[in-house]
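Entry type: protein chain
Record version: 2
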Amino acid sequence: MTRSFRRTGLRRIGVLGACTAAAVSFTAVAPAQAASPAQAADGFEFTLYAKEVPGGGASPSGQTPKVGDVFTSADDLYRTKGGDKVGRDGVTCAVVRVSGDQADANCVGTFVLNGGPGGQLAAQALVTFDVSNQAPAAYDIAVTGGTGDFKQARGYVRATPDGDYQQMQFHITTR
């Protein structure tokens, strides 16, 4: 049995969205250039901003998370805050440990980017958050694979809270 709990501020998959981070896939969006990436011979470095898409169906409960709780989230990805939309992500997380004021959630997710570069990035992270406000500090999301321009991708995404957004710094190698 799974139950939802309020997760204000907790992202994916996020990475891995975040993760941002993940066993959920994105679908395509209108073609656009992703955040003026610096492309090296063997990878990409760029920054995007994730803004959570309001989800339907889960009502805020305010309850403390318990091991086995599962939640999902989705973000739109932007080149700049409020700028051009260049993709989206989807994340599923399961709470795997609760100890005092801390909880760990194992999160998996997928980023979909269109334009230069374009493709999907699969990612995952074990995210620790404070159960009193359910907001994690900055964390890294492991990139475990990809498609398109991200074929054979490895690397990480640094997710940092940034007001109503999550700043996502991508560090991707493709060799």
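Comment: The mean pLDDT is 77.
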